[in-house]
Design brief:
heterodimer; A: alpha/beta; Rossmann fold; two-stranded antiparallel ribbon; globular; B: alpha/beta; 7-stranded mixed sheet; 5-stranded mixed sheet; 14 strands; binds thiamine diphosphate
């Protein structure tokens, strides 16, 4: 990967982190409402994954979607405006934190019903295959979501129909407060791919380049027509499940231990250690990301609320 | 008598029933170690243990299906759906299994099952997490559907549900967990299928339940300032539906407004108004008016969302319309 691209990945990860930190403050201040799930700790996953896709490849994920939105190229302004429910938000203030999407950037949403987007991913891939396009659908989900029927139905269908899907499990070891061991018959989620005759691989989720490499290989293999595959990416969320999680189910020492493997810190060490970037250059990126977040907040604050007369827009495509 | 919250009342009902009957147990997502995502089962796991307060995987169909199966062996499960929106992921088990098995096998299977589910909008959770789909569940014969509007009813009705030998869907509203009210101590049971007058009046009958009760009470206070006395009937049970107090009140006031949080089309208001026309046509002095949610999936934006939800002012306006 060339230097410019490496630095861009670093910028994306820092931007997600700073944007969410500000988001958390704005949530406490009552400017963001609803459920908000932070991606802090997991930034390397979507950053590495989405860096490995081609423009024709679709991305679909669950409600923990701010990072994915940024990586897919949605400007921070529109992400922040959506968080604040403004008309300029990417979903025009209708979706909020859990429901961002940008069809023009091949990002097919943020979905809040656990597992429900997985059959949709199979359908997106079917659309491409049917039309003879060479796009791959990248479907991200938590390990907790692999216990619901939707997951199993979608994986089976994708294999039976040889659909171009890359299934990506973000194993952060907890579904809300339930550990993977307490909820899943096998805690190594990739084993579930075996049952559907699918190739699979486990990847270190704190190493953005490892994720990029694994994803690149997997996406191109899927594109070649060999059918769906699965990646299980081992990661950890540093914050609560959503805002207002009392976190009674885990010890703070465990969180601290994982924070030592902060994906941004790991990447920083790689970049400076391998002379890919100077500390100063990375500081500049930090400053730029902070400024972009500040601009995004200002943009969102200054944006109008959706008008009351727009309430019924988009209930149907056609006049009813 | 103690003045406690709706949350405490629901919790108390389950706690007392679990103490009373070892066959009563709880299953659901985050009901144990977490203490319930709305803290309704806080402390249960430590007291009753993991065998009786069972954290489940995220698998709604398995939660309801396993609850049904265990109920058929004589256990009395309380299955918690984290929110009623996730009931759709278990719809076959609720509709094709729970509501039908007793009848379809000639009464052989008995399903003493409670499904607790919290619903309602107004918290900026977006379209999939804000629904009040109560009416669709009340559509199915074989299910009992109840939804309390006060802490006392929450305790009494939930106890009745746990003791019922039929499957019962018990619907809570997330914005009402902090509502306080007087609740009788100890063994207080409210029979399922009995409507009740929550506020006496003579000028108009407001028929409602759950969140609608709160909205209607506020509206009634407003109306009282102008000397209009609304009588409020709380349905409490949607199925079986007790029209007795509604018809009695209507025969006195000759005017009715029906208030529900869910969508108007094919809703509770449609059912109740139709029954008023069927049972008390000669007493009708004005068309029955329904107040309900606007016909739109609820948006995230707070102002938009509030504009789609029924408000006390809408009830006041509806009452003025029928007077
Ligand atoms: C069908 C359904 N059931 C329950 C929920 C509530 N819920 C939201 S997130 C979540 C945990 C999901 O865990 P996981 O899939 O591991 O993803 P993570 O949150 O760790 O990213 C639950 C239970 C839901 N949104 N949808």
């Amino acid at each position: 990967m060339d230097k410019a691209k490496l630095l861009d990945l670093y910028y994306q990860m820092v931007l997600i982190r700073r944007l969410e930190e500000r988001g958390a403050e704005l949530y406490q201040a009552g400017k963001i409402g609803g459920f908000m799930h932070l991606y802090i700790g997991q930034e390397a996953v979507s950053t590495g994954l989405i860096a490995a896709r081609q423009p024709q490849d679709r991305v679909i994920t669950a409600y923990r979607d701010h990072g994915v939105a940024i990586n897919c190229g949605i400007p921070a302004n529109q992400v922040m405006a959506e968080l604040m429910g403004k008309a300029t938000g990417i979903s025009q203030g209708r979706g909020g934190s859990m429901h961002m999407a940008d069809v023009t950037r091949n990002f097919w949403g943020g979905h809040a019903i656990v597992g429900a987007h997985m059959p949709l991913a199979a359908g997106l891939a079917l659309g491409d295959k049917y039309a003879g396009r060479d796009g791959v659908t990248i479907c991200m989900f938590g390990e907790g979501a692999t216990n619901i029927g939707y997951f199993h139905e979608a994986l089976n269908l994708s294999k039976v129909w040889t659909l171009p899907v890359l299934w990506v499990c973000e194993n952060n070891m907890y579904g809300m407060g339930t550990t993977v061991e307490r909820a899943s018959a096998v805690s190594e989620i990739q084993q579930k791919a075996e049952g559907y005759g699918m190739a699979h691989e486990r990847v270190d989720g704190m190493d953005v380049l490892a994720i990029y490499e694994a994803a690149k290989k997997a996406i191109e293999t899927v594109r070649s027509g060999s059918g769906p595959r699965m990646l299980e990416i081992m990661t950890y969320r540093f914050r609560g499940h959503s805002m207002g999680d009392p976190e009674r189910y885990r010890k703070q020492e465990e969180v601290k231990k994982w924070e030592e493997h902060d994906p941004i810190g790991v990447f920083h060490a790689y970049l400076t250690g391998n002379k890919k970037a100077t500390t100063k250059a990375l500081e500049e990126i930090e400053t730029r990301a902070k400024a972009d977040v500040q601009k995004a907040v200002e943009f969102a604050e200054a944006s109008p609320e959706p008008g009351l007369d727009t309430l019924f827009d988009h209930v149907y495509v056609e006049e009813v | 008598m103690a003045r406690i919250t709706m949350r405490e009342a629901i919790s108390q009902a389950m706690w007392e029933e679990m103490e009373r009957d070892p066959n009563v147990f709880i299953l659901g997502e985050e009901v144990g170690v977490w203490g319930g995502s709305y803290a309704v089962t806080k402390g249960f796991y430590d007291h009753f243990g993991g065998e009786r307060v069972r954290d489940t995987p995220i698998a709604e169909a398995a939660i309801i299906g396993a609850a049904i199966g265990s109920a058929m062996t004589g256990l009395r499960p309380i299955a918690e759906l984290m929110t009623i929106n996730f009931a759709f992921s278990a719809m076959d088990h609720i509709v094709n299994q729970a509501a039908k098995l007793h009848y379809m096998f000639g009464g052989q299977f008995v399903l003493p099952l409670v499904i607790r589910a919290v619903g309602g909008g107004g918290r900026q959770l977006g379209a999939t997490h804000s629904q009040t789909p109560d009416a669709i569940f009340a559509h199915f014969p074989g299910l009992k559907v109840i939804s309390p509007g006060t802490p006392a009813d929450a305790k009494g009705l939930l106890k009745a549900a746990i003791r019922s030998n039929d499957p019962v869907l018990f619907i809570e509203n997330a914005t009402m967990y902090q509502v306080r009210g007087e609740v009788p101590d100890g063994d207080y049971v409210v029979p399922i299928g009995k409507s009740t007058i929550q506020r006496p009046g003579k000028d108009v009958t407001i028929v409602t339940y759950s969140k609608g009760l709160e909205i209607s009470m506020k509206a009634a206070e407003e109306l009282a300032k102008d000397g209009i006395e609304a009588e409020i009937v709380d349905l409490r049970s949607l199925r079986p539906l007790d029209m007795g107090p509604v018809i009695e009140s209507f025969k006195k006031t000759n005017r009715a407004v029906i208030v529900e949080e869910g969508w108007k089309s094919y809703g509770v208001g449609a059912e109740v108004s139709s029954r008023i026309y069927e049972q008390a046509f000669d007493y009708v002095d004005a068309p029955v008016v329904r107040v309900a949610q606007k016909e739109v999936p609820l948006p995230y934006n707070r102002t938009l969302e509030q504009s789609a939800l029924p408000q006390p002012a809408d009830v006041v306006a509806a009452v003025r319309e029928v007077l």
